[in-house]
Specification:
Layout: E1 2-11, E2 15-22, H1 23-34, H2 41-46, H3 48-73, E3 77-79, E4 83-87, H4 89-101, E5 108-114, E6 124-132, H5 134-144
Antiparallel strand pairs: 1-2, 1-3, 1-4, 2-6, 5-6
């Protein structure tokens, strides 16, 4: 089981973006964000505060990544309002990847670890998947000065 926040990326190189946490990591993150030690798996399904916290975390991280990526590439990119889902990993990934796999074989994967500077805890692991639309790859590669085989 995973908790995933989906975004549509708009701008010069449109596509989709997904932030994925294992359910265990999502619960750990929610306990730290809310200071509520009794948050559990059911909270993610039924608590509006828990769901909102995961969506907001996704929004902040997506905005940060896209801002950095925009600065690096010179492309204008912005995330949509987040959509949160909690499901089996295969179901979550197939939602975002199925349509894209018919037209593209590329994705940008960003492994992410959230750390609290006050503790020795190793951090909360997650993964970002940036799935640019097929036409967007050429724009991204061009902005990076990477030759594109046409």
């Amino acid at each position: 089981m995973v908790a995933a926040t989906f975004f549509r990326v708009a701008g010069d190189a449109p596509g989709n973006m997904c932030l994925i946490f294992t359910l265990r990591e999502a619960i750990t993150l929610l306990r730290q964000l809310t200071s509520d030690p009794i948050i559990d798996e059911e909270s993610i399904f039924h608590s509006e505060i828990a769901r909102s916290a995961l969506q907001e975390t996704g929004s902040i991280l997506a905005g940060s990544y896209l801002s950095s990526f925009s600065d690096f590439t010179g492309l204008n990119l912005s995330p949509s309002v987040p959509f949160l889902t909690v499901d089996m990993a295969a179901a979550v990934l197939s939602y975002g990847l199925m349509e894209m796999s018919q037209v593209s074989d590329y994705a940008i994967i960003i492994d992410t670890q959230l750390k609290n500077g006050e503790t020795e805890h190793s951090g909360i692991d997650s993964h970002f998947l940036l799935l640019p639309d097929p036409d967007s790859f050429q724009k991204i590669f061009k902005s990076l000065g990477v030759p594109v085989n046409e």
